[in-house]
Amino acid sequence: MATRLLTWLLRADMVEEVLGDLEEKFYSMASHKSLFRAKLNYWYQVLNYLRPFAIKKSKSTSLIRFTMVRHNFTLTFRNFKKHKSQFLINLIGLSTGLACVIFIALWVADERSVDKFHEHESRLYQVMSNHSDASGIRTWKGVPGLLLDEIESRVPEVSTAVATTDTHEFTLSSGETYFKSNGKFASTEFLNVYTYPLIGGTGISDKSGILITESLAMRIFKSTDAVGKSLEWHFFDQTKDVQVAGVLKDIPRHSSDPFDFVMSWDFFHDDLISYKNWFNYYARIAVVLNPSADPQDVSKKIDAILKEQQEEGKVDLFLTRYSDLYLHGKYENGKQIGGRVENMNLFITIALFILFIASINFINLSTAKATHRIKEIGVKKSLGASRWSLMGQYFTESLMLSLLSVVVALVLVRLLLPQFNFLAQKQLTLGMDWRMIQIAGLLIVIVGVIAGSYPALYLSGLRAIEVLKGKLSRKTGEVWGRKSLVVIQFSLSIILIVSVLVVYKQMEFVKQKNLGYDRENLVYFEREGRLINHSDAFINELRNTEGVEDAALSGFVVGGGNSTGGVSWPGKTPQDQIQFWEINSGPGLVEMLGLDLVSGRAFSSEFGADSTSVIFNETAIAAMGMADPLGKTITHYSGDKKIVGVVKDFNLISLHTRVEPMIFLYNPEKTHYVMARIKPGSEVSTLHKMESLYSSFNPGYVFKPQFVDQDYQAQYASEERVGVLSRYFAGFAVLISCLGLFGLAAFTAERRTKEIGIRKVMGSSVLGIVYLLSLDFTKMVLVAAMIALPVSYFIAADWLQDFAFRVGLEWWFFALAGLSALLVAWFTVALQTIRTARINPVECLRNE
């Protein structure tokens, strides 16, 4: 191999002499020293001869290729310099488009990484439940807490299982200092199922143990050295002394369930849950399967355990991968049908649209400017240039432009990333690691090939004789191709405009819809500490506070709160399994919420103890099949209750779902909140007065009021962010399309300069010439609208299916989108055509 290398590179007059010397030295060393040292020395001598004076001067193919590549680069920079306007339009369009694509790529990568950090992610599954009733199937995470022991003892395919609760805000105290923190309860295998590393201590081994994050440790103890220190946990009327068993690293931002502390499941299950049976779905159970286990088989075994305990029950259990719930957490009639992944797919589609639109600009302007390079192509072909060499030249241009665009795009992303993070509510970073370099390189190649393929294939395929005779201008194929690309550009832009408009109108509908209750200026806060035993006195003082219109004890929570299937009624059969949203209430809550009574009355102290009374909504009465419900007795898991009222349906949950059965229980002692309505315009001053009153009743506790309307809006935070980001991306897509249209208009005006001069000499007005030059572009946008509007209708209709309550698709949505695209196109073209139309005819008719 060394000999062949030397023969290939060494000057011919030196080969024989050098090889002779090297072989003599090789055999001498092999006989006196060792073969290995002889071979090593031989390679050393060969490499030592590869010096400029000894290498043969070759006109090899590689040298020719290098010269051609250098020549292509030189031509590329000269063309960029010569056609500055075309270069700048392409650079701005591509870099803006690529910046949008990079933003979307960062956002998508961040979404896809949620919950992927757990060590057993591929084998970690959540137990889910499908509840069937007369209104359909409802899917959620709740399962009976008694199921945990059965899974651990009866399902050998499960390696580890854990029971937890949802995360809730609680109060912790250290001495006289109180803190509001988000916590949950979890069984002993919590840290073996989920990957939350400890920085000190151990897991929870008894009811008095608590795990806290390092951030919470710093808040409370000003140090992460907190193991063994004592805290006091407070919730409602419960208080418990706990001891820090371990300190966790802060929960990763890619967790879908952030929390500050974890307490013992045994304490929750044994001391806090009073209704422990197979019909109470208070637990969230996750399992880690053995590597060989089949999730479908395990699902059937776990479901069979529940079926043993529920004769003729209508609840089915199944497993779903834990990390899939964030993106694929939407279920309808028991089937997974989407979730946040729909937003991710939407943004990926927008990114492809923008990338395609930006590439179309390059293709259009390159083919449009071909007439300026006809002679160059003809001369090169007549002198023997191959089609491959010409293709290489055009691909070099597109790749160089793509490289510059990626660099500019990365700079734009770096500058605008803080604003994007604010809009997207993310913490994205742009690190120039190896992965980012790979992505940037891939973008350069993809955009370069897409944008340069048509010019390279088209221009390099022109016949030299036709080029030199000037016959290119008579061909209409490339003109129609260019027009088709403009139509595609504006079709995609119009689809984006319609989509953004529909999302905006649906969000406005969500904000303004009458939910059946009055959520304005309605504030609530936790009922804890001394408020448990002094609620009546506090409510009376609160009602007398200036700026407070009304106050009541409340268990009302936007989004549902507790749900129960433990309700029986006259005529109920085993097949009638209904889940009711359960709302504990004090006197005056129905009136303060502004609920309309269909029949009967609200809870009132005038009727004595109302603890055996209940109120249903219309949907619940219909589901139970009651014709005349007032005065009838139903059986709740807490005892027999008499129906005293029926309220009109109202939207307790989001507008994504239909109204579901609800039951109001007169149970003031179990209400977790105090709710008050504030006079409009006095919110700030009234909240200060409420805080002072709260502090006087509950010294040390943190007053943390929340507004009901803000909770309601928070349900649509994801859609709201998607809508805002979509508006920006759609705007950039339209801007990029307009840049291409502006360049084409400039080219068209330049090509028809002499025609314009003749028309002006013959008496044409500026307006007439503008009309003439704009007519073709108007036709293209109208064709784009005809294609895009039906497509956008089906896309918008499909997106709205996610809402049980939604806006109608009005005709003017689509008319406005088409008209907007047309006006933008007219304005873009007018910027160029008016300037051209005002040129002196003498300048137009003058020869070069």
From TrEMBL:
<keyword id="KW-1133">Transmembrane helix</keyword>
<keyword id="KW-0812">Transmembrane</keyword>
<dbReference type="InterPro" id="IPR050250">
    <property type="entry name" value="Macrolide_Exporter_MacB"/>
</dbReference>
<feature type="domain" description="MacB-like periplasmic core">
    <location>
        <begin position="88"/>
        <end position="304"/>
    </location>
</feature>
<keyword id="KW-1003">Cell membrane</keyword>
<dbReference type="Pfam" id="PF02687">
    <property type="entry name" value="FtsX"/>
</dbReference>
<dbReference type="Pfam" id="PF12704">
    <property type="entry name" value="MacB_PCD"/>
</dbReference>
<feature type="transmembrane region" description="Helical">
    <location>
        <begin position="346"/>
        <end position="365"/>
    </location>
</feature>
<feature type="transmembrane region" description="Helical">
    <location>
        <begin position="437"/>
        <end position="465"/>
    </location>
</feature>
<protein>
    <submittedName>
        <fullName>ABC transporter permease</fullName>
    </submittedName>
</protein>
<feature type="domain" description="ABC3 transporter permease C-terminal">
    <location>
        <begin position="729"/>
        <end position="841"/>
    </location>
</feature>
<feature type="transmembrane region" description="Helical">
    <location>
        <begin position="87"/>
        <end position="109"/>
    </location>
</feature>
<comment type="similarity">
    <text>Belongs to the ABC-4 integral membrane protein family.</text>
</comment>
<dbReference type="InterPro" id="IPR047699">
    <property type="entry name" value="Permease_put_prefix"/>
</dbReference>
<feature type="transmembrane region" description="Helical">
    <location>
        <begin position="811"/>
        <end position="831"/>
    </location>
</feature>
<feature type="transmembrane region" description="Helical">
    <location>
        <begin position="728"/>
        <end position="749"/>
    </location>
</feature>
<dbReference type="InterPro" id="IPR025857">
    <property type="entry name" value="MacB_PCD"/>
</dbReference>
<dbReference type="InterPro" id="IPR003838">
    <property type="entry name" value="ABC3_permease_C"/>
</dbReference>
<feature type="transmembrane region" description="Helical">
    <location>
        <begin position="485"/>
        <end position="504"/>
    </location>
</feature>
<feature type="transmembrane region" description="Helical">
    <location>
        <begin position="769"/>
        <end position="791"/>
    </location>
</feature>
<keyword id="KW-0472">Membrane</keyword>
<feature type="domain" description="ABC3 transporter permease C-terminal">
    <location>
        <begin position="349"/>
        <end position="460"/>
    </location>
</feature>
<feature type="transmembrane region" description="Helical">
    <location>
        <begin position="399"/>
        <end position="417"/>
    </location>
</feature>
